[in-house]
Amino acid sequence: MEKLAFGINIKRNYYHDTLKIGFAIFLILFSSQLKAQQDTTHKLKEVNVTSLSAPNVQTIVPVQQISSADFSHYAALTVADIAANFAGVNMKDYGGVGGLKTISVRSLGASHTGVLYDGVVLNDAQNGQIDLGKFSLYNVQSIALYNGQAPGIVQPARSFASASILDIKTIRPQLTEAKPYLISVGANGGSFGLINPYLQWQQRISKQWSFVLNGNYTYANGQYKYKETGDGSDTLAIRRNSDIKALQTDGALYWAKSDSNKFKIQFNYYNSDRGLPGPVIYYTTASNQRLQNHDLLVQSAYEYIAPGSFHLLINSKYSQNYLHYTDPDYLNNAGGVNEHYMQHEFYQSASVGYHILKNWEVSYSSDAALTNLFSDVYTSYYQYAFPTRLTLLNAVASDLNFNRWHFQANLLSSYIRDHVKNGVAADSKSAFTPTIAATFLPFKSSGLQLRAFYKDIFRNPTFAEQYYYAIRPRILNPERTKQYDIGVTYQKSFDGFVHDVAITADAYYNNVHNKIIYLPTRSPETPSVTNLGKVDIKGVDVTLKTNVIPAAGWMGIFSLNYTYQQAFDVTSPDDSFYKNQIPYTPKNLINLNAGINHGIWGLYYNGTLSSSRYYVSNNTAQYYLPTYNVSNASLVYKILANKLPVNASFEVNNIFNERYVVVYSYPMPGRSYRLSFQITI
User: Which residues form the TonB-dependent receptor plug domain (predicted)?
Assistant: First the structure.
């Protein structure tokens, strides 16, 4: 009864707070009146499917970016589907529409990837990993991956605190007095019972004020066929308990006196109920595990740039994440698992930059975050710690351009202190971690650039690693990661058949000490988390992008990303897996995107080829996962109907019905279809 009361109180308080915040935002956003406009013209006109745009690759750190205009080229539904196409990215995908999707960049693990949402890093102190499958693409303007960190120096200190950054930028209204609103209505539907309607409303309130509101609902039964190989029959079975019902709403209110003096406040709410199908094990019944998430994020940002000298950036954020996990089939004295978690975070950041000279800028950033986690997990021998964590981050940075040289450097100070209600809190931790980056242009107008960076960073243990079923205090050190990168870029535009070319090649070496190892198969009565790991990672990322114009009115695109990774466990020469490839890390990974469009039509292909992997540290035949090759295609159709843009697309995922797994015992779907339609008013 105590557990039930705790869960009900969490949920009641959550919805009470959510309603209050939502009502306040509602009053702000709807304080203006809509001005309806009619259009009686009945004429169809064609629109270009896409436009020519050369990506900027000549940056001080490696960057890859995909904009919203290109999302349809990838047969993508979520941010995870886009992020999986970047070089150096290894997606961990448990399958299905609602399956957990996280990314590891350059074999460092998902916890080393910071997810930047409109300038503020998202945080999950409980697990340290952000599920990218939660984020739809309807409100996203662009997605970029930065190795090391984003290139600017006036940014929150937390942006310097990850080994890599996935930067998600949402759509900001660009409206005029003549056309003060924009409303987009659309839907996706397809295999596995997918129904996904969405709505976006952009509104210009005045010359300085505007807002945007988004909403989408996702339902899928998640039932797809897979090969059952446990009995050697190679028959088809149906994946069960992989359904999802999810509602996501978000919005933002913008004020801009000018491009150098602006403010915004945003909210994002996500509510889902999904089944967890569990691993496929022969002669076992279907899983009955369920997971509910209710996530709320409210953040604001103010930016002021004085001409030629001073730059100010202030960010604030409040987030709460409610999680309810049940497993009625788990054998214990309580008759199953029924766990509730509620996580809160209060975050404040201030960054200032100053141009000492025209070509030399320095900055200082200071962040403070207070995070806590409540849970009703307890047994006769264990009570949850109820941890609260104070995180203080301070960073000083410098950016200098000198002739054909460009230098950046920063020093990050981190201080972390925990307080617990039950048990013993982890020791306070502090560290200074530097980053140095440089570029050089060998020739002024050749389009060739050389670059290099070094970054030292550490990852503190998550609440789950530090406290979950910690019967005795766990002595854990932060993971320490050193990154070395050297690369070359080439970018050029032309007037002929080839419109533009962008090529990058980066070789890197990463070294991880005190890698935190979690062994979920151990009994919860004994500590199952420890610092055991050392990993040496050597790799190469190569990207190629080009646009071609084969004939008037025709355009072709081609993008190729290649990754080579040698990620060896070098913990101890006495280990049987010494110098074996770490789990779920293919040595070779290729992502290909190509297409052609003409007038109102566009046809695109997207493919992923992964070499073999192993799902445990021992690289032996019994733990082998074979190569897989997945191909997707999309047909895009765009017209003007009554002067209203209409977009339609038909997508086929896994064209050749490849039977494969990304995570052992979690089969991926076979061939599937999706039809999309959108009209903009």
Answer: 58-150
